[in-house]
Amino acid sequence: MTSLTFPPGFRWGASTSAYQIEGALDADGRGACVWDTYTAQGRIQDGSNAATACDHYHRFPEDIALMKAAGFDSYRFSIAWPRIVPAGTGAVEPRGLDFYDRLVDALLEAGITPMACLYHWDLPQPLEDAGGWQGRAVVGPFADYARIVAARLADRVKEWMMLNEPNVVAIHGYGTGEHAPGHQLGDTGILRALHHQNLAQGAALRAIAAEHSGLTLGTVLNLQPSVPDSDRPEDVAAAARWDAVWNRVSLDGVMRGQIPPLLAEAMADFVLPGDEEAIRYPIDLLGINYYSRMTMKHEEGHPFDVWWGEARCRRWTGMAWPVQPEGLYDLLTELRTDYANPAVFIAENGCAYDDVVADDGQIHDDERVLFFREHLEAVAQAAREGCNVKGYLCWSLLDNFEWAFGLSKRFGVVRVDYDTLARTPKDSYRFLSSVAKGGDK
């Protein structure tokens, strides 16, 4: 096994998202979001909802204590837009800001650096009713919301991420319908949602930077190498198209201010003069969410005439996702060579398995431990070879509401009993704790 050694100052922690863990959806003036509506439509596979989830809204001190005990020094959490501006624009709910005040203060008291993400998929429903990410009307409200939150927290929160996985929002929320808001708008709907998230991100970055100095500003992208299922020309072309959609619209937008050439014609009707400069921003830190490579083939009838091919791997997670740690190494080295080696951190990396509570009351999740070890070996190798990687945050701290799968898929390094809400650290928690504390080499 490769030695798990990392550069001085390398950071360790976990990521979560508000909708997946907070619960308290009716508390303290919170407004409705697209996932509330989607859930109410009966579209969650196991019939569950996020009304309670992990009840982090009330139990966050316990969860912070778990991170502190693990030796984690960083925590990426998302701020719920509908808690702050319930209608998406207009009146501000002070009780929502008060909650994040308490959370941030508790993190700092525990010696944990807060990393705030402004948008992790909980678009206020009134904004979706007005067109959502299909149009420009959402751009100004997002920038205003960013300004409001930063005005309250930027004296203590120094690291700000704008979006989380805009590609997933666009493709699954507006293209294929497996995620909220559940639209099936095809290729154009996907590209419009990607572009308007890019515009909102650029506006929010500028809004915060105009009023605050000394902050680290960035965003979080789900980047996954897209490889062809075969060497057939049509499969090679399909993988390139999917790479443009999944990776390059978001990455090249913020990093280069460029629309991918493969998509320029398809996006011409809604990309206006000045847009490319508006979406480019010299971010300080790029968050990367990585789960696997994507093996793609040409198949008509799917978005961009691309569909899943046969992944070549030895193991699969409980989500039926391939385990391919080498893809993370490839991704980091590509950013080094092709994107001027930006400062990056792994913002999400993890896996769901069907955990079993053993007779001793513990969760011996050996498959998850192996997953983490192999991916950390890939990160360590990339760092040794000069990749500018600053830290690693696992997905996720807690088992949680896994979007359209509901409560049935467990990604946490801490088990949550959804009946009692008791937290039980798993073996994977202890493994990451050992690495974070320097004990597992």
TrEMBL record:
Signal peptide: none annotated. The keyword Hydrolase applies. It comes from the Bacteria. It catalyses: Hydrolysis of terminal, non-reducing beta-D-glucosyl residues with release of beta-D-glucose. Keywords: Carbohydrate metabolism, Cellulose degradation, Glycosidase, Hydrolase, Polysaccharide degradation. Its EC number is 3.2.1.21. Pfam families: Glyco_hydro_1 (PF00232). The active site is at E165, E348. GO terms for cellular component: cytosol. InterPro entries: GH (IPR017853), GH_1_N_CS (IPR033132), Glyco_hydro_1 (IPR001360), Glyco_hydro_1_beta-glucosidase (IPR017736). Substrate binds at Q20, H120, N164, Y291, W395, E402, W403. GO terms for molecular function: beta-glucosidase activity. One of its GO terms (biological process) is cellulose catabolic process. NCBIfam families: BGL. Belongs to the glycosyl hydrolase 1 family. This is Beta-glucosidase. It comes from Azospirillum doebereinerae. The lineage of its organism: Bacteria, Pseudomonadati, Pseudomonadota, Alphaproteobacteria, Rhodospirillales.
